[in-house]
TrEMBL record:
It comes from the Bacteria. Residues 1-19 form the signal peptide. Keywords: Signal. It comes from Bacillus seohaeanensis. This is YckD family protein. The keyword Signal applies.
């Protein structure tokens, strides 16, 4: 019985130990991520695209309010949140930050 338990324990140890180290190979740490500097032309192009998206998202929210899917209050709250995110994006020169994604990915690989 002890040998069976030892064998099962050893299999689990090797299985989970190697799976964790193999999954962490492609992940870059914060220090290894490339630091990209956008030119003014690139920022302008990204800014135009983001502005178009921002306008379209506001139109979409207003249509949902018009059709009764969202209340006026919900629509206003959604547009406020959208405005906050857009202003932060502009402050960061249209460099999207995915902190929550990288944190989740790093936490998963531990």
């Amino acid at each position: 019985m002890k040998r069976v338990l030892l064998a099962i324990f050893t299999i689990f140890l090797f299985t989970f130990g190697f799976a964790q180290s193999a999954g962490a190979e492609g992940v870059q740490s914060k220090d290894e991520r490339p630091q990209v500097k956008l030119t003014d032309e690139q920022k302008a192009e990204l800014g135009k695209i983001h502005e178009d998206l921002h306008v379209k998202k506001k139109e979409l929210i207003n249509k949902y309010v018009e059709y009764g899917v969202f209340t006026e209050e919900q629509g206003k709250a959604m547009i406020e949140k959208l405005e906050e995110r857009y202003s932060k994006l502009k402050e960061n020169n249209y460099m999207m930050r995915w902190h929550h994604y990288h944190k989740m990915k790093e936490r998963h690989l531990r």
